[in-house]
């Protein structure tokens, strides 16, 4: 990555990850004397629900999961997350 930034200083890198990754990224770039702008993006509950349903609908083994099981998976995951 250092070579990319050195050869092309206007390069912008977009990363996504869990919250604990933020500090690692900031530390890395500060050690390289580069600026890291970190923006937290939090998906809305509806976005997560849509993504889960989309992924479950595209399961390669449709016979392995009933509609009830799919609904339970979405319901349980949505119960475990919190919206800001």
**Average pLDDT reading:** 82
The number of E-state strands comes to: 0
Main beta-sheet strand count, sense and barrel state? none
Given the helix and strand composition, which structural class is it?
Answer: mainly alpha
Radius of gyration: 19 Å
* Residue share in helix: 40-55%
User: What is the terminal separation in angstroms?
Assistant: 33 Å
List keywords for this structure.
0% strand; 4 helices; 2 domains; mainly alpha; 84 residues
Report on the architecture of this protein.
- There is one protein chain.
- This protein has 84 residues and is an all-alpha fold.
- The protein folds into two domains: 2-31, no CATH class; 45-80.
- Helix content is 55%, strand content 0%.
- It is built from four helices and no strands.
- It is elongated, with a radius of gyration of 19 Å.
Topology diagram in text:
Elements: H1 2-7, H2 19-31, H3 45-57, H4 67-80
Summarize the structure.
The protein has 84 residues and is mainly alpha-helical. Helices cover 55% and strands 0% of the residues.
């Amino acid at each position: 990555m250092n070579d990319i930034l050195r050869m092309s200083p206007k390069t912008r890198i977009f990363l996504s990850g869990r919250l604990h990754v933020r500090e690692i990224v900031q530390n890395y770039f500060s050690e390289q004397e580069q600026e890291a702008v970190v923006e937290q993006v939090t998906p809305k509950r509806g976005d997560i629900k849509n993504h889960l349903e989309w992924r479950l609908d595209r399961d390669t083994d449709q016979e392995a999961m009933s509609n009830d099981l799919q609904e339970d998976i979405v319901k349980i995951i949505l119960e475990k997350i919190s919206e800001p």
